[in-house]
Amino acid sequence: MKEIIQELLRVEGQAKAVVAEAEEAARQTVADARAKAQELAEERRRSTAQDVQHLVAERTEQARAEKRSRLDEALADSHTQAHIPDPLAAEAVESICAALTGDPGEAHATPPSDHHASD
Q1: Does residue 77 sit in the same domain as residue 99?
Q2: What's residue 88's pLDDT?
Q3: Is the pTM of this model over 0.85?
Q4: Would you state the torsion angle of the CA atoms of residues 10, 15, 16, 21, taken in this order, to the nearest 10 degrees?
Q5: Co-location of 94 and 64 in the same domain
């Protein structure tokens, strides 16, 4: 009977050792899994941050291009709106020359048209 009890104690000791090893292996597996999860999360965070930076840079460039396009259109419109028709420009040059030289012969035979009557 003493031998049976000793055998049971020996087997119990071995079982405890196996359980302790299994628990340690489980703890290590959990720790490894947590570390891997943190690593993956950090990698995804970096990747997302890079994607966001790329998207912000892309959208900023698109906004700048749109702004340049609108400014170019506005400039073209302002040049179109500010254009003085050639007959009016010629009439103004002749009138200015006549006024500066005091020679009414330089001016048109007809009085300048009143292009700015509403002013």
Answers
A1: no
A2: 87
A3: no
A4: 130
A5: no
